[in-house]
Design a protein that fits this description.
With 117 residues, the protein is mainly α. The chain has one domain. 46% of the residues lie in helices and 11% in strands. The chain is built from five helices and three strands, in the order E-E-E-H-H-H-H-H. Strands 1-2-3 form a three-stranded antiparallel beta sheet. A hairpin with a 6-residue loop joins strand 2 and strand 3. Helix 3 runs antiparallel to helix 4. It starts with a strand and ends in a 10-residue tail after the last helix.
Length: 117
């Protein structure tokens, strides 16, 4: 884990077999696009090669994965069945917060200073 000059916290992981790499950070979607622009071997890198239109299927996949996680793990977090629609709609909003970071990565801009960073 390190904090770079852009004040971005980043964790680089590699599987034990070395088959996949992934970068986790707190930049809100930027890493999902930027790392796939740099490394074509990452899953769904071909979507990023489509340009900005590739953001739509990326976000759709992230939302569907969030919904599946809500259904699969909701009970463990104390979410009742009738609360699931509200939690799922909140997950849509949370995933849409990554959109500005994705657009920043496509423009190849640097991160701006915010209260978070």
């Amino acid at each position: 884990m390190h904090c770079g000059s852009t004040r971005r916290w980043e964790w680089n992981t590699t599987s034990k077999a070395g088959r996949w790499r992934r970068t986790f950070d707190a930049t809100g979607g930027e890493s999902a696009v930027r790392t796939r622009l740099l490394d074509r071997s990452l899953p769904y890198a071909w979507l990023v090669r489509l340009g900005r239109i590739g953001i739509v299927p990326l976000l759709t996949g992230k939302i569907l994965t969030s919904w599946w996680d809500c259904i699969r793990c909701g009970r463990a977090y104390g979410i009742r069945w009738y609360e699931l629609p509200v939690v799922m709609m909140a997950s849509v909003g949370i995933n849409l917060l990554e959109l500005p970071g994705m657009l920043t990565a496509f423009r190849n801009d640097s991160l701006t200073e915010t209260c978070f960073r």
